[in-house]
Amino acid sequence: MFKRLLDYNNGEELETVVLIKNSQLRHTKNDKLYLALMFGDSSGEIRGNYWDANNQDAATFNTGTIVELNGKREEYHGRPQIKIYSLRVVGPQEGYDLNQFIKSAPEKIKDMKEEINKYVFDILNPTWNRIVQYLLKKWGKRFFDYPAGKSNHHAVRGGLAYHTLSMLRDAKGISDNYPQVNRSLLYAGCILHDMGKVLELTGPAATQYTTEGNLIGHLVLIDEQIMMAAQNLKIDTESEDLLLLRHMVLSHHGKYEYGSPKLPALLEAEILHRIDDLDATVYAVTNALQHTKPGTFTEPLMGEDNKRYYRPKKDEALDKSKPLE
Amino acid sequence: MFKRLLDYNNGEELETVVLIKNSQLRHTKNDKLYLALMFGDSSGEIRGNYWDANNQDAATFNTGTIVELNGKREEYHGRPQIKIYSLRVVGPQEGYDLNQFIKSAPEKIKDMKEEINKYVFDILNPTWNRIVQYLLKKWGKRFFDYPAGKSNHHAVRGGLAYHTLSMLRDAKGISDNYPQVNRSLLYAGCILHDMGKVLELTGPAATQYTTEGNLIGHLVLIDEQIMMAAQNLKIDTESEDLLLLRHMVLSHHGKYEYGSPKLPALLEAEILHRIDDLDATVYAVTNALQHTKPGTFTEPLMGEDNKRYYRPKKDEALDKSKPLE
Amino acid sequence: MFKRLLDYNNGEELETVVLIKNSQLRHTKNDKLYLALMFGDSSGEIRGNYWDANNQDAATFNTGTIVELNGKREEYHGRPQIKIYSLRVVGPQEGYDLNQFIKSAPEKIKDMKEEINKYVFDILNPTWNRIVQYLLKKWGKRFFDYPAGKSNHHAVRGGLAYHTLSMLRDAKGISDNYPQVNRSLLYAGCILHDMGKVLELTGPAATQYTTEGNLIGHLVLIDEQIMMAAQNLKIDTESEDLLLLRHMVLSHHGKYEYGSPKLPALLEAEILHRIDDLDATVYAVTNALQHTKPGTFTEPLMGEDNKRYYRPKKDEALDKSKPLE
Amino acid sequence: MFKRLLDYNNGEELETVVLIKNSQLRHTKNDKLYLALMFGDSSGEIRGNYWDANNQDAATFNTGTIVELNGKREEYHGRPQIKIYSLRVVGPQEGYDLNQFIKSAPEKIKDMKEEINKYVFDILNPTWNRIVQYLLKKWGKRFFDYPAGKSNHHAVRGGLAYHTLSMLRDAKGISDNYPQVNRSLLYAGCILHDMGKVLELTGPAATQYTTEGNLIGHLVLIDEQIMMAAQNLKIDTESEDLLLLRHMVLSHHGKYEYGSPKLPALLEAEILHRIDDLDATVYAVTNALQHTKPGTFTEPLMGEDNKRYYRPKKDEALDKSKPLE
Amino acid sequence: MFKRLLDYNNGEELETVVLIKNSQLRHTKNDKLYLALMFGDSSGEIRGNYWDANNQDAATFNTGTIVELNGKREEYHGRPQIKIYSLRVVGPQEGYDLNQFIKSAPEKIKDMKEEINKYVFDILNPTWNRIVQYLLKKWGKRFFDYPAGKSNHHAVRGGLAYHTLSMLRDAKGISDNYPQVNRSLLYAGCILHDMGKVLELTGPAATQYTTEGNLIGHLVLIDEQIMMAAQNLKIDTESEDLLLLRHMVLSHHGKYEYGSPKLPALLEAEILHRIDDLDATVYAVTNALQHTKPGTFTEPLMGEDNKRYYRPKKDEALDKSKPLE
Amino acid sequence: MFKRLLDYNNGEELETVVLIKNSQLRHTKNDKLYLALMFGDSSGEIRGNYWDANNQDAATFNTGTIVELNGKREEYHGRPQIKIYSLRVVGPQEGYDLNQFIKSAPEKIKDMKEEINKYVFDILNPTWNRIVQYLLKKWGKRFFDYPAGKSNHHAVRGGLAYHTLSMLRDAKGISDNYPQVNRSLLYAGCILHDMGKVLELTGPAATQYTTEGNLIGHLVLIDEQIMMAAQNLKIDTESEDLLLLRHMVLSHHGKYEYGSPKLPALLEAEILHRIDDLDATVYAVTNALQHTKPGTFTEPLMGEDNKRYYRPKKDEALDKSKPLE
Hints:
6 copies of one chain form a homohexamer.
Chain A: E1 13-27, E2 33-41, E3 44-51, H1 55-60, E4 66-76, E5 79-89, H2 109-121, H3 126-143, H4 159-177, H5 183-192, H6 197-200, H7 211-215, H8 218-232, H9 240-250, H10 267-290, H11 316-320
Helix pairs in contact in A: 2-4, 3-5, 4-5, 4-10, 5-9, 5-10, 8-9
């Protein structure tokens, strides 16, 4: 197996297979073209410039291409970069797969599957249980593979499932504290709330919005899936049980301005929205703090109203936490 | 046939069958109960108090009940009211129907049907044409019977169809002016945009929101109907044609804060939203001006950001216009 | 001991000691004055009118007075009320105490104290631990007696402690899920965040804002207490530990428009704000749902952006839950 | 006559007279100055760099200068550009006029004049008719020459008249649909609403805001013109007819935040505002879509709340439509 | 001369001529009509009910009528009221004038005129000076008679001039502190900024908005007056001096949402807006505090974002201040 | 003494000691590093590039370093710059001080001290007088040295005191105009309102926010100082006098969104907020206008809602005003 991209030290020469995560044709002021590239694999990302490029090169080495990279790791302006000796496109017959080159969620897919299934087991209402199982089966392959978004949070392979699982754990604690909560409905809502992203996004690598993602959105996309599942399962599409579940997913963004066609009008819908928000924020803030020096502030976080967060000088819990990205 | 409610003059005694459009049990300060009633039929509405009522009376003569009313029309405090001699609940076997007592849209249902069908004929795209025909057939009975809302605008029997038709006429003028507009898509959007109200509202009399109206809303309800229609018609649910139509209805409120899960992202969706708004506003403002003295302002209109409109001292077009409600 | 107010059945005569929770002098249209009274004790509240009142009576039987009430429970307009035979002010020598007549939080003060102390034990940072202990000691009597607000949520005796404890339980679940969270800081923040209400409010009975509550507010009031505690405990007022704790309480309303002088800029501050919000919402929504018929919506909840919540037709968890107020 | 700028093919040498639509002095990283120029004539625009420039060149070849351009059309980085051989300022005696080099509205001025005059003929109220005719005469030359704005929409020669005419066509369709509309007032409002732009803007070429445009704005500028016209025409400045017309122009931006000193308070004012908005949006969206590949989204449109619009993969109406800019 | 309304003590019988400031026909629950009247003269206001009224009485004794009142001052429910013995409409021949019955600004008109003239003398720019003098002459009678508004602040006879003068005094202090301020422009702006209210309002008694007030508004109304004054004075309507003055009045509300068609874009326009706001707020808050008990808060002030203000327990400056209304 | 930075003419060689106000390591397109430097002393600022730099140079010549600069003043692209011959870090033993190189407020510290003391003398209430004196003594050194902000306004040495003094002068004029104002409270509020900035900012040179500035903010920081001062002076921390003063500083930002934990609820707090705003705006607008050509607009001012201000073609007062920065 190849040594991975971040396994090389400064000054060391490297030969490895990587993904071009971003490719932009630029030109220097004295009119020479070059490609500004971002290479990545599951170990992380490094930049490199491909000099004296032409339009042909730009087409060959574009975003999402897997390449064999020969070069040398250098330090430039305090940041690591690759001095490129050569680039070669890797053919489909060489057996590489995009997913190899993408960072993954911090837990194993197998473990996440198992734990989520335990939560499914605790959905006692048969309508919700059957629909959740049906859709997990139908979309499961993508569900455990896709990220939860393009950039703000959980933008890693398996991020969608990881975000869902983390919310289920929160949901458990909250259901324990408040016995008036309908635990089955809350769990079903957690599992389905973002599942529409398997239709809204293109996948874990070089993630983009699909056209139906842009024109319909994951809230309505999963609502439509629930309706069609109900038809296939011979569940009455007018039953209150189904209505409640549809409302859970349609209202989970919590506010009109975030694209919810309805505001949460169930105790469980209100909680679902808040857990969703909380888990996304904890992820994004933690990730930013992990890249920030103690005693200083993060950059403004776009997904958090451009707020900046402070990393205390001494913060044992954070120091010992596992890096997210 | 009975003389209608507004056909009686001041001081005249009356005996007629009317609908109780609103009933509230109140008590005087010296501790007597009475029912404050609003009677109505297709000619309009008048108030009347039923004195010395008890809880039993309140249950008997509640909102939505059809009654035989004996009494006398009087003037009280400048406003007409009925002095009630007696009230009797009319039984189902007497052959009355709620709809008789409700004001209707200013055009005949038969005429509206015919004209709308002409517009359907001009939807040249087969996917949109078939779905529109399918849903018009499935929901047509309600579609030509329901109001377009509880109160703000077109809150009359047949108001939903009337609003739709008026928008189609606007759509025609606009499509003529701008040849770049996809006329078929715009017409299909007009016809379907509010059709979900047949599920969102309870009907033309004593109109309320249904539970699914409150929890799902008419935008998503009609979107689900479109998807199920497509399945039944063997239309590919992933086709771009279907995607465009779904986007039309899902975005027609134009802004997130009005419950659109997506903002208009098609030229035709943008126009649909604006025609919808325009027609509702023209209706509401006209209706208010028709009840306002020349040279003065209307009351603040709730559906129009509480704005007040001025009726010019001399305004021939308005003076000659047919009253809406 | 007296039978309590809600222990009497309809039609039964009663003689009991109650608190006047609200008293308003009104007049009938034929110019007679009466007092509209709200009686209450720990079992709940009932209205009653004191007829033919004068200004003297209004002064005698004003809000916050403890009285002996003779009368009869009746049903009026579907709601229970007391027909008053006589009212007598109870003197201070008779040994009654305002607090007897106020509804209490659903858990016992003794139990809450014990459980909160366990959380204090888990605050491992000595600065935070000492300040929390110091202030719990200084304000503990009020802390376990006061409500968490005038009306929106936890407006019961002991409500402040109950809200705090419920948040600590949420905090525990969340700290377990996210190991990067500084548990000590989060617990300390939970315990202190609303403690300034012991200065902002007048107490559990007939709760009002104090002048310093209105002009300074509980966020800054507790911040000042923390600074003075630090001085007395010889803790460096400039230390980062103290700074973090001050930031927790000053930012816990989460947004400027809710009176936070700073937005949360610590992961733990962000979480504190969200737990606070969540617990208040769960309480308010649950309380409203418990007073709502299955299959219908609550009234608009003022503290929740005037949203209305739906109580499902069948909802076992809610049905079995302990009534909050 | 010269071949026009966009009539040359890639690789072809050219010699033509063009307008410098934008000129910026920039410097390369190795400290050489050059002028980044945008050339344009009525056929469109192309960029070109003038190397080794100095401050003198920047002053000579600045924005708004007409020049004789010798060079060669090339492709650079996928976009056409001109490799400049020489530039020469064209003197006033050579008979060129700025307006030759500006794109024009898609209809002929003569045709637009004629059609607008027909609408004037339908303004039956003599006060409005005389004022419209007076101001069309006074400002007509500019009115048929100016754009409707600097950039967002109708930013072409004759754009102001074109926008006005397109609105009149919409107004006709709407007046036909709603007989309660005062057609004369609506037409007069359409014609005058933006006429203040002849004072607010500097003209069709290199359009800027005038100082009075910035400090007073076109709504109030045309209102002042109406008042002065009335004086000259001996029309009572206090008459209701004049008041209504002044209100039409002063309220046509529809909302305070867009600089309307009053909100629309006439049915016709409400419609005027909406037609104005509709026509501007249809223009801007169409223009953007015409520059967008089928199956993709436009860039965010600044004048449309930064929304992006989708061009369907197959869209006959749009495909066949005449390009706007 | 008559003793004035507030000169009578409790229990004393009175016979005086007063203005009916508000008249409303109401009915008791046992169906009797009465008029709820508010009497007023320059000493203040007291309520009184006219029992057993009919529609005729309502027409006779309506808002704005001057009447001879016989009755007795009583205390009801802690508030003074008049028990009415008889009411008689005072005829025009009896020589009363509405203005006698209206509260006036706390300074004498003659003094205000004189002081304002001194400020006019300090407007050194001849364009501004001549226009200010011209308009003061044209509208002076109303200017020193009208209030500055219907209710929020300076709603007294002469209130417009008083508000203007108070602003001029502020303007003087500020011009002294900041020598970069163009004192002449600021003074001219102060004097003219609200002068359009002589057209926007109906006058000092029973103040209402005129139709042109509602449809055009005082900012544009005074702008039009300035333009017409310039024409009559042969001042160039395009001169920068005139432009600056027009901008001052058009922008003085400071924000679009308050109906300014332009935002302040001159240092002096910015200051004018702030002085205007400051003086209105000081007036409204002072007036409210003067009617509030020490140690308590005012009611929410509508014109001040519904804020409530605290009157300190001991506040010598306020205690000694002259009552405003 | 050295000639100062702006004392050299174009083309002249220079040798002087200056502060590096900003240092950024950049690289040219052909991969060479250079330092883009901003030099400054009390005479103003000029840019210069240090070519062929390395990381070591970047560390040596970073922001805030005092250096001896040899070079030549040149004109580049219309703007002055320094061609650098050599740079040498000046050692601490050479006796330079950061403050020498910073622009100062336009009045002398000694004069400002004296004048502020006169205002202190007019604070007649002993509680406020003693606290003001105590804190002026404790923080006076910084108070007369610090700027009032990082950038928007009064960002000069002594700017905090200058802003305070200018507000006191406004406060005097306003107190003279409105006798109901508690002058002592207003003066005390002016002096203390921004004094927390001595803790919030790092000082006059290369001003940054401190961590406690970011996490607590100057409003609460000075509130804490007032409380601790009261303790040390044996002033009752619960007294109304103290409460009023605390409210003044805590509410002076006037709106929640600017970080006031409470809105102004005293007449004097309302005025304090407005004077603060007024003085900051006059400073920022004047400063921008002084750098703008007559007849043109300033750049959008960030601290003034991005508004642009117009400098009239002829504006004597501004022309003669002393430059602020």
